[in-house]
Design goal:
single chain; alpha+beta; Hsp33 domain; 2 domains; six-stranded mixed sheet; five-stranded antiparallel sheet; about 35% helix
Length: about 300
């Protein structure tokens, strides 16, 4: 196997690769810093941190796999009946991702294998994947939540909704002080027309790999993870890109959102005669508006 491990990137980054004479497409990512940034922004408890971190990490790789447009967005939504209430993560094609959970203080006892009980926090319900393309077109795909463990559900989404044989692995380790110790994952797909021998070897490799968190604890890079998953194949690294937790909210966007609430609602807010603070769901940033600001917004609203 020939894997180019030369890498000048530091911090969080994602690798794209092809293998087996273009019959396999693969991605791997290290995402500790961006998951910890989300944890800090939302003050998530450990189970919620793992759920959100896995979803954001998966969304970054799914955007690269499913969205071709440079300005296209991909959003992953888990709407389950578990105590976390729901998870939303949106990734763009430049390596930016943002996300939140409905109930960030969700924390459950660990499972018998000592892993965080993300599946119990998510519960059962629906998984929706939304692609917003450059031309304004939106594609929605929806499947039932299979286990709530995020990676397992994203794997089933590709098989059921996209009809693409795919394996997704995700992991987040949380320290005792709630900071993120490790985070990352992989996404591997068989391309159309892949030979049975390629499928058999890949399936055997996937059956024998360790948990993603174990590979990350051994300080394996995304290149190392792909080398382990794609053992026995020639692998070509085709791209590397930095990834980060980033929200594009600003006061102008919030003002435009306020214009849409209607003049009656704005009149009610103005009548209360005090400052209002609105918080961005995705990053936790607060925007403050005085009664005078609200009067100006009302004048501009329809």
């Amino acid at each position: 196997m020939n894997v180019n491990t030369e890498n000048t990137l530091t911090g969080d980054y994602m690798v794209r690769a092809m293998a087996a004479n273009q019959q396999i497409r693969a991605f791997a990512i290290t995402s500790r810093a961006l998951v910890d940034a989300a944890r800090s922004a939302h003050n998530t408890a450990p189970t919620a941190t793992a759920a959100l971190g896995r979803t954001m990490t998966g969304a970054l790789m799914m955007n690269q796999a499913l969205v071709k447009d440079e300005d296209g967005l991909l959003t992953v939504q888990f709407d389950g009946d578990g105590p976390i209430g729901g998870i939303v993560a949106t990734a763009d094609h430049r390596g930016n991702v943002k996300g939140y959970v409905h109930y960030p203080d969700t924390d459950l006892p660990r499972k018998a294998d000592h892993h965080l009980n993300v599946g119990g926090a998510v519960g059962r319900g629906t998984l929706t994947v939304i692609r917003d393309l450059d031309d304004g077109t939106t594609y929605n795909g929806q499947v039932s939540i299979h286990s709530g463990e995020i990676a397992d559900d994203l794997t089933h989404y590709f098989v059921e909704s996209e009809q693409v044989p795919t394996s997704v692995g995700l992991g987040v380790l949380v320290n005792f002080d709630r900071s993120v110790r490790r985070a990352g994952g992989f996404l591997v797909q068989l391309m159309p027309g892949a030979e049975d021998s390629v499928l058999d070897r890949l399936e055997d490799n996937l059956q024998h790999i360790r948990y993603v968190t174990e590979m990350l604890e051994d300080e394996m890079t995304p290149e190392d993870i792909l080398a382990e998953i794609l053992k026995g194949f020639d692998v070509e690294i085709t791209d590397r890109m930095p990834v980060q937790f980033y929200c594009n909210c600003n006061k102008d966007r919030v003002e435009r959102a306020l214009m849409l609430v209607g003049k009656e609602e704005l009149d009610s807010m103005i009548a209360e005669d005090h400052d209002f603070s609105l918080t961005c769901q995705f990053c936790g940033k607060q925007y403050s508006f005085t009664p005078a600001d609200l009067v100006k917004i009302r004048a501009m609203s329809r």
